[in-house]
Amino acid sequence: MDSLKLGPYEFSSRLILGTGKFSSTRRMLDAIKASGTQLVTVALRRFNREQAEDDLLGPLSEMGGITLMPNTSGAATAKEAVRAAHISRELSGSPFVKVEIHPNPHHLMPDPIETWEACRILAGEGFLVMPYIPADPVLARRLEEVGCTSIMPLGSAIGSGQGLSTAGMLKIIIRESSIPVIVDAGLRAPSEACAAMEMGCEAVLVNSAVAVAGDPMAMASAFGEAVLAGRRAWHAGIMQKSGSAVATSPLTSFLGTD
Amino acid sequence: MNSLPAWLTDRRLSADIAPLLVQGDGASLERLAAEAQAITLRRFGRIVSLYAPLYLSNFCSSGCAYCGFASDRKTPRRRLEFDEIEKELAAMKAIGIGDVLLLTGERTGNAGFDYLRRAVDTAAKVMPRVAVEAFPMTVAEYRGLAESGCTGITIYQETYDPDNYRELHRWGPKRDFLERLETPERALQGGIRTVGIGALLGLSEPVGEALAVVRHVRHLCRTYWKAGISVSFPRIRPQDGGYQPSHPVDDRFLARMIFAFRIGMPDVDLVLSTRESPRFRDGMAGLGITRMSIASRTTVGGYHDPENAGTSQFEVSDNRSAQEFCSALRSKELEPVFKNWDPAYNGPICKEVAPCP
Questions:
Q1: Sign of torsion, CA B276 B281 B284 B288?
Q2: Which of B65, B110, B271, B343 has the most other CB atoms within 10 Å of its CB?
């Protein structure tokens, strides 16, 4: 089976969904089901043990067939992210943590320095660490060295819907990584998720594009299919682009062979 | 008076937003609304974060002409003791509130820094997020609040017109325009994560006020790269004192201002309180606005003992219960979010008591 391997875990789906920004918990759960995903990320900020109606952890934990990956969205430093990871593991029981450290709360760009430090600590403590990072090939290798389970470079700015604007860097990261590369953030349309998979990503993570769609369930399903199509195409071997036409009947055949 | 900071009069900082504030026809307002909605959806999704104010004290040392708690008002003065604060917080938690804004008047002996810090300590034990709207403080005091679990400060300049400011702030520490203008920076230097600013609409010419707020936001973002900035749009409400706004702002201009801010500042939180009517609030939710107050009491003790809570700072216009307001949001396909923060992230955001590097 062509499964996504993250530490000792295997997933048949290569689509990871975010759980924020939905108009209701019901809509979010329906979208997860429709997408076929088996791994979802949820922010510690949205755990609410005191008010069930406001809580995302409870309904996700009760949902069968999915693994939770808590995230540290809100953390501005490595220290805060580590603290959030400990609390999240305690509450969710999940060994995964998506390290998100964005000190600027407006553009939400990940801080490479604090992210590296948090990942070093958390990987050392046995977490399955999945950092959200800028599309930086050097940082990607640094994170692999400290024991991350995967790396999650951004396709473009989070929530921007600008697609794979970092494609050039992503290709380098994919070529040089020996841990799974998962594109996270910026994807707007299923075609972009498909393109990321064709490029050789092991999986993609999508949130806004599904949550704010007119029909989140249908969009989630479309992303699921696009990811599958992209993966199949990557396996099949995509023909190279050429700058000029290549004749199917060679022009020099009359010269014979050597 | 010392000279005004350069950013306050630098029109280049607000040049993109100025044309959007020109009152045009209905079609132009509709176009702005559609663009503001699309940006809000993309950046913030289908959620509205909720908070509620908790009035700790109505003692005040200033003479703001437009405020029901100004020191010359006959209103009975009261501050909540810490057991009462706990009861207020418990009453707020019972309706789901997870984000509280603690309010006082200007600094007095009854309600000064030590009192406020202890109130923050008390609130942070039970509320996931605690913010403060009180008197201007020193950098060290803000750091103390951040260490106690205060993540945000709200401090309105009231008016960015220095002459009007002097006329309206008749006495007391708030009379110093520049001292107040520099307060958000002291809060950020002290490690407070988010600063809420705004102009009290109705005090001065509204287009000028709006553009000054834009310049202020952009100045703060440029100077303090980790700063979270939010903007509120308070309009003068009827209050004990009977001040009538000299530059009233109607619904259409206020809506235009919010749309323009969302278009020009796509990732800044825009806040609308219960000063506004249910009709206006329901209409604006999702069209730029991302944070709203809910089930607010603007009296001291108004949540746990409304019978004895006394006079309010101003009259609330949206008196709906939390449940009613949430139903209205849900009918617009928006999710009300009561907890959108975690105490795991509390603490000063800067390491030293100095400007962020």
A1: positive
A2: B271
Residue A53 in contact with partner chain B when CB distance is under 8 A: yes
- For residue B337, tell me if it sits in a domain: no
**Residue range B73-81: mean pLDDT, rounded:** 87
**CATH classification of the domain holding A10:** 3.20.20.70
Q: pLDDT tier at B283 (50, 70, 90 boundaries)?
A: very high
What whole-number distance in Å separates Cα of residue B311 and Cα of residue B238? 12
Q: Which residue of A has its CA nearest to B347?
A: A80
Domain enclosing residue B230, as ranges: 6-332
Number of domains in chain A: 1
B42 CB within 8 Å of a chain A CB? yes
In a domain, B197, yes or no: yes
Q: How far is B260 from chain A (nearest CA, A)?
A: 17
Do A164 and A183 contact (CB within 8 A), yes or no? yes
- On whether the CB atoms of residues B228 and A67 are closer than 8 A, the answer is no
* Interface predicted TM-score of the whole assembly (ipTM), two decimals: 0.86
- B218 is a domain residue: yes
**Pairs of residues, one from chain A and one from chain B, whose beta carbons lie less than 8 Å apart:** 98
Q: Write the CATH number for B234.
A: 3.20.20.70
Does A74 contact B at CB distance below 8 Å?
A: yes
Domain residue limits at A63: 4-255
Residue type, A229: A
Whether residue B339 is contained in a domain is answered as: no
Low-confidence ranges of chain A (pLDDT < 70): none
Contact residues on chain B for A117, CB-CB shorter than 8 A:
none
State pTM to two decimals.
0.91
Separation of alpha carbons B296 and B78, rounded Å: 18
From CA A124, how far away is CA A127, in angstroms rounded? 7
* B316: enclosing H helix or E strand: none
